[in-house]
Amino acid sequence: MDEIIEVAGRGFLRVVKWIIIDAFIEFFLYFVGYVTLKVVTFGKYPKANRDNDTLCCVTGAVVLLFVVAVIAFYNSK
After folding, report:
1. pLDDT: is 42 or 2 the higher one?
2. Which domain holds residue 32?
3. Which tens digit of pLDDT belongs to each residue from 20-52?
4. Interatomic CA distance for residues 9 and 43, integer angstroms
5. What is the dihedral of CA 54, 56, 62, 64, to 10 degrees?
6. Cα separations (Å) of 65 from 29, 33, 49, 53?
7. Backbone angles phi, psi at 5, to 5 degrees
8. Predicted TM-score of the model (pTM)
9. For residues 69 and 65, what is the distance between their CA atoms, to the nearest angstrom?
């Protein structure tokens, strides 16, 4: 009986982890990347009728890593 509960719990935690990671990537990184691209290109890119999800997520990740690196650099002094 303990094995059944353990397997069910492990499966539930995997689903929760996947939802949290997917939500982080889809919402936070996409939003940061979308806003960054809009600001840098003065509102011309990304266009609304194109599929730019990957570009926005990658841009968001790069911006987030850059911000963390800058904060780490200034806090190390």
Report:
1. 42
2. 2-75
3. 888 888 788 989 999 999 999 888 888 777 788
4. 46
5. -130
6. 11, 12, 28, 18
7. -65, -40
8. 0.69
9. 6
* Residue 12, both tokens: 């539930």
End-to-end CA distance of the chain, in Å? 55
The domain tally of the chain equals 1
Rounded Cα–Cα distance for residues 39 and 16 (Å): 34
Rg (CA), the chain: 18
* Lookup result for tokens 């926005």: 56
Token pair, residue 66, equals 């850059």
Residue with tokens 């996409």: 30
The amino acid at residue 20 is: I
Tally of residues, the chain: 77
Q: What is the largest CA-CA distance in the chain?
A: 60
